[in-house]
Amino acid sequence: MKIHAYLMFDGQCEAAFNHYAECLGGELELMRFGDSPEADNVPVEFHQRVIHVCLTVGDQLLMASDSMPGMPYEGIKGCSISLQVENVPEAERLYTALSAGGTVQMELQQTFWATRFAMFTDRFGVSWMINCDVDSQQG
Prior knowledge:
Pfam families: 3-dmu-9_3-mt. The chain is built from 2 helices and 8 strands. By secondary structure, the chain is an alpha/beta fold. The radius of gyration is 17 Å and the shape is elongated. Helix 1 (about 15-25) packs antiparallel against helix 2. The protein has 2 domains: about 5-65, 2,3-Dihydroxybiphenyl 1,2-Dioxygenase, domain 1 (Roll); about 80-130, 2-Layer Sandwich (Signal recognition particle alu RNA binding heterodimer, srp9/1). The protein starts with a strand and ends in a 7-residue tail after the last strand. The strands form 2 sheets. A 4-stranded mixed β-sheet has the order 1-4-3-2, covered by helices on one side. A 4-stranded mixed β-sheet has the order 5-8-7-6, with helices on one face. A hairpin with a 5-residue loop joins strand 7 (about 115-120) and strand 8.
């Protein structure tokens, strides 16, 4: 079994996932409401919204979609995407790229449990944690 996160956006899904693919690498697969077999049942103004996107990084998946027409959107809350990284330079790179334009709750720093740790909400409203237990670049 694998457990993967699925995020919901309100029209920003494509922009968010293009950014995540740029930051995290991997392969992006995206389908719009207008490309689905149900396109005739979706208002035209929603056709460019994302019905499903999947970012595959190695054997890990991050998935999402935009909210459905007529459904209230309350934002993404109650969880964080946590990235476990191998070394400090990678933690710094991801922190800089993903937190840009967002709100930082905890700057990237050493803690009693990690070589580096940070918490922030990105510019798309997604909460992230970056954790580097031990710097693999240190001998």
